[in-house]
TrEMBL record:
The chain crosses the membrane at residues 12-33, 81-102, 114-132. This is Cation transporter. GO terms for cellular component: membrane. The keyword Transmembrane helix applies.
Length: 316
């Protein structure tokens, strides 16, 4: 991870920590004063975001470390691991919120929440949507799985605040029209929030686990890499190209064929150009391993009418 990338990602994480902490305190205090189970559940959701943002920040710092003897390919997988921590946290919080809501429904609801809870929920929806847009775009720009996961957690908080708004609003309408059973909409909304949190946590967990495993990019995703190598002077053919994801970046393994009559030094120079070209043009490519083969016109899927001396090299 470059220093500039780390600074931008860390700034996004700190904004998430500050924003979520403020919202969690505001919704928690307001939910307690307004006697709203839905708002209290939403406050716990925002509190989980605080811990999640801290996990993201820790992952970013780990990913920033350079390769070492134990981690020759770098620490890029620290980010999806941080996203896994966040996902598990969401699942735990979802279960806790659900249990609390069920207890409230079973115990009975005798009065609706206070009206000022709606104002706080509207503010929460606006702030969390703004945070989602900022984090999601930053995560895409920096190719950070942890930031993207954290952004979707903000979006889930928007949905939970909307559900809480409906629950609180419905309970207040029940008070206005004298319909006592509408009071249950508040804890029911808390239960809906719990289900939404569990669903989001499960989805993020599956995506994060997938990102921690090395997997080869699909052919269409690696097409630009292949085309770039084929255009490099001295490369007669690309025998094989595999690009595998390693955390937020990509490692490329490529086999190229060159003129069999050139020197070892020329072959080495061509391989070096291939590596530097890919790493310079594609910022998400962190390393390239190049294997140089002598071109064989009789090799399957290859054909040429050129004599060896007519084949391209770095010298002509």
């Amino acid at each position: 991870m470059t220093e500039e990338r780390y600074k931008q990602a860390a700034a996004g994480a700190w904004i998430g920590i500050a924003g979520n902490l403020a919202l969690a305190l505001l919704k928690g205090v307001t939910g307690y004063m307004a006697n709203s189970k839905a708002l209290m559940a939403d406050a716990f959701h925002s509190a989980s975001d605080v811990v999640g943002s801290v996990a993201v920040l820790a992952g970013l710092r780990a990913a920033k470390k350079p390769p070492d003897e134990d981690h020759p390919y770098g620490h890029g997988k620290a980010e999806p691991i941080a996203a896994i921590v966040l996902s598990v946290l969401l699942l735990v919080v979802g279960v806790e919120i659900g249990i609390s809501a069920v207890k409230s429904i079973y115990g009975g609801v005798h009065e609706p929440p206070e009206g000022f809870a709606l104002t706080v929920l509207i503010l929460s929806i606006i702030v969390k949507e703004a945070m989602f847009q900022y984090k999601f775009r930053l995560g895409k720009k920096l190719a950070s799985q942890a930031l993207i996961a954290n952004a979707w957690e903000h979006r889930s908080d928007v949905y939970s605040s909307i559900a809480a708004f409906i629950g609180v609003g419905g309970a207040m309408l029940g008070s206005y029209f004298g319909i006592a059973y509408l009071y249950y909409l508040d804890p029911i909304a808390g239960l809906v929030v719990a289900v939404m949190v569990l669903r989001m946590g499960y989805r993020l967990l599956m995506d994060s686990v997938h990102s921690t495993m090395d997997h080869v990019l699909h052919q269409e995703d690696a097409a630009d890499l292949l085309e770039t190598v084929q255009r490099i002077k001295g490369v007669i053919a690309v025998d094989q190209l595999r690009a595998r994801e390693h955390g937020h970046y990509v490692i490329v393994d490529v086999k190229i064929s060159v003129n069999p009559r050139i020197s070892i030094q020329e072959g080495h120079d061509i391989a070096k150009i291939v590596k530097l070209t890919l790493m310079k043009r594609f910022l998400h490519v962190s390393d390239v391993f190049v294997h140089v083969n002598p071109y064989d016109a009789g090799y399957p899927y290859k054909s040429t009418d050129s004599e060896p001396d007519d084949m391209p090299t770095l010298l002509h």
